[in-house]
């Protein structure tokens, strides 16, 4: 009984933030006539206003909101690019915040370049090694070799979790040092600012929620090794 409650608590702590992020985004995704424009229109206006040379805004894939510093592209999902909702406006401003970080070459923008590329490489190579070693161990029936494959998988997932955690300051800066002050200038009616804060917080914590999910995967692997 106690074990079951403990396991349930772990699941809630791990998946709770991710579910909260999705709930906040959905809750404020309703169309509002009070919005002066769509997320895409706001993003293009802010790119021009802040003189972000070379930065473009495109209508991207569903749930694909991000800023690509290499291509200088602000990619917004259809619901954000075409939407006139608090979620659309806040997420668009958040991604513009990233564009401002990189265009100005701010120290916080170095976090992604410093940590994410290495972590992606480790994850890609680690996943391949884990599958290869585990397959070899299962065929040859060598438990010790299989344990090595599991260990590689654990290190890979840990690297992925650290990747998300390491860029939290960059996400927070994009939401609350960039997007929020801009939106408070009159781009969003004053009565909607509290809701916008919630959306920006959800946008900033998206990677953190992903990190917790990765840590649950890591915990499962550790139990398996035991």
Automatic annotation (TrEMBL):
Superkingdom, taxonomy of origin: Bacteria
InterPro entries in the record: Zn_peptidase_2
TM region(s), chain numbering: 6-26, 121-140, 146-168
Pfam families noted in UniProt: Zn_peptidase_2
The entry's keywords: Membrane, Transmembrane, Transmembrane helix
Stored PANTHER family: MEMBRANE PROTEASE YUGP-RELATED
Descriptive protein name: Zn-dependent protease
Phylogenetic lineage: Bacteria, Pseudomonadati, Pseudomonadota, Gammaproteobacteria, Cellvibrionales
